[in-house]
Amino acid sequence: xxxxxxxxxxxxxxxxxxxxxxxxxxxxxxxxxxxxxxxxxxxxxxxxxxxxxxxxxxxxxxxxxxxxxxxxxxxxxxxxxxxxxxxxxxxxxxxxxxxxxxxxxxxxxxxxxxxxxxxxxxxxxxxxxxxxxxxxxxxxxxxxxxxxxxxxxxxxxxxxxxxxxxxxxxxxxxxxxxxxxxxxxxxxxxxxxxxxxxxxxxxxxxxxxxxxxxxxxxxxxxxxxxxxxxxxxxxxxxxxxxxxxxxxxxxxxxxxxxxxxxxxxxxxxxxxxxxxxxxxxxxxxxxxxxxxxxxxxxxxxxxxxxxxxxxxxxxxxxxxxxxxxxxxxxxxxxxxxxxxxxx
Amino acid sequence: xxxxxxxxxxxxxxxxxxxxxxxxxxxxxxxxxxxxxxxxxxxxxxxxxxxxxxxxxxxxxxxxxxxxxxxxxxxxxxxxxxxxxxxxxxxxxxxx
Lengths: 343, 96
Known about the structure:
- The complex is a heterodimer.
- By secondary structure, chain A is of the alpha/beta class.
- Chain A has helices at 54-63, 88-99, 103-129, 133-155, 159-177, 185-188, 201-224, 242-249, 252-265, 286-301, 318-330; strands spanning 6-10, 15-20, 23-28, 31-37, 41-47, 50-52, 66-70, 76-79, 274-276, 282-284, 303-306, 311-314.
- In chain A, the strands form four sheets. Chain A has a four-stranded mixed beta sheet, with helices on both faces.
- Chain A is globular and about 60 Å long.
- Chain A starts with 5 loop residues before the first strand and ends in a 13-residue tail after the last helix.
- Chain B is 36% helix and 26% strand.
- In chain B, strands 2-3-1-4 form a four-stranded antiparallel beta sheet, covered by helices on one side.
- Chain B is globular.
- Chains A and B meet through strand 1, strand 3, strand 4 and helix 10 of A and helix 1 and strand 5 of B.
- Strand 1 (6-10) of chain A pairs parallel with strand 5 of chain B, so a sheet runs across the interface.
């Protein structure tokens, strides 16, 4: 079984990462802040002005350790890609599958079904946990809408139709997400999803978490030997990690959205942790970003029951497991791609 | 698994000093220094084998001594630490 390795997040300005024998050293202005044996690290994520020595980059590329560069705000900038690895037969199967007429809708349908199901679990849980009758009514209505969309998904065969259903489900879900906030609802209210740039605090927090989750999903696809750009639900576009986005769909609500709500409701993130830029973009402050990263890392270590494996696994391994299940489907070892269903 | 590595290297010769540096570096590759010649390493079976092999290759069996203790896990429950400590849990969120 693949082991969940730690990810190192470097948010300190002017940090210098270098290779020292079999360890990674983080120097900040001449003093060593951290020295970690490489075998603990599955990936490195650098925010903003962080330098990485060429030899460390070479080593990470050789070992298939993910190195991701984000800007100060957590926007994706670049990713280190080593020599093409993995199994060429698997990759070929993936490329054939995407131009096949049968497989993409079958995969996409299960991904969307997983996504809607998981979102619905979050909504139902919110309905159970609140006493406000108005909120309960909204949650129940949303859960019913999602159930209806699941039913229409079952009969749809066209990719475009499924993307439409997914869009409707997302709209219904995001229209009630703001109601799950229990403290300072005024600051964390949300008027649907906005991105590039996020226009309110909740969207800023979600965008940041999605960036972290996406880089984990892309790394998972790569680790399994799949091409992260060849997706099934998401259309192919230059530079777009379509498969990473596909793998992420089932996990958005249960991993990122739930975490955002927890952070707000426990007041680990408050209204003052954001700043607004001219033009309306809302962004997370530096210190708050650290809080979010730490919480995200902890969340990945939480154990969750995997319905297909029938055993408990760390949350952070779920993208890897799903990528593996997808690979097995693409190679014909499984008759369907089973999405991750959260209970 | 967590292991504790402790060593004494005879440093009365140039070669001894060299061995001391090498042994320390090997330990650093697998874990972290908790006292002058005491390291705690969190390794899997294969890594433990590599660690042991590299240490044994490096040390002088006539002059030096090496001890590897297997720690009872979870570490935080069974290892008592007093005084100054810079221990970093490499499995906890790593944010710098």
